[in-house]
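--- STAGE predict ---
source: upstream dedup step, 1 unique chain passed
mode: sequence only
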Amino acid sequence: MKAIVNKSDVQRAFKNLDLLEKEIAHFGGIAAKKAAGEYASLVRSGIGTQATPMFVKTPWKLLSEIWKKAKTAYEDKFWIETGGIYRNVKTKVISQLEYFAGLIKADDPEAFERAMRNEYGFGLGPERPLFRPAIDFFTKKAGDYRQIKKNTMIWKEFKSVVVKAIRKVYGR
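--- STAGE serialize ---
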């Protein structure tokens, strides 16, 4: 059997592969940005949580009595402590496919320190983690690394990346 390959078809195929790679990176970046935003939003939703709404399953421990007293004894302190952490939990672009979501020490060292005390219980009663439960909400341990849980919004977004790229390049 003998096959004849047209040179222009080969060039078009390679051009489409290059376009496909760019589109996968583009849609992958969008998915990574959405994932970082979802994580940061979930962390912010746990700040100052005093009661769990019956219709929402949250990963947060309720505020302990020690924390409630500390946060409500001086109303101004409650808002300063909570607001500083809340304002500083954000996303940051690292590269086209990498985003950071969390609290950066350099942005506000005092808020970072309060978040660490909150996360690990240094000095203000028992620990009340915000960041670890949010990670556990979206991912599961898989050996030495973490894997996105199936059927979450983030998983669906990443799953659709290649399909979107193929449709954009090949129009299907």
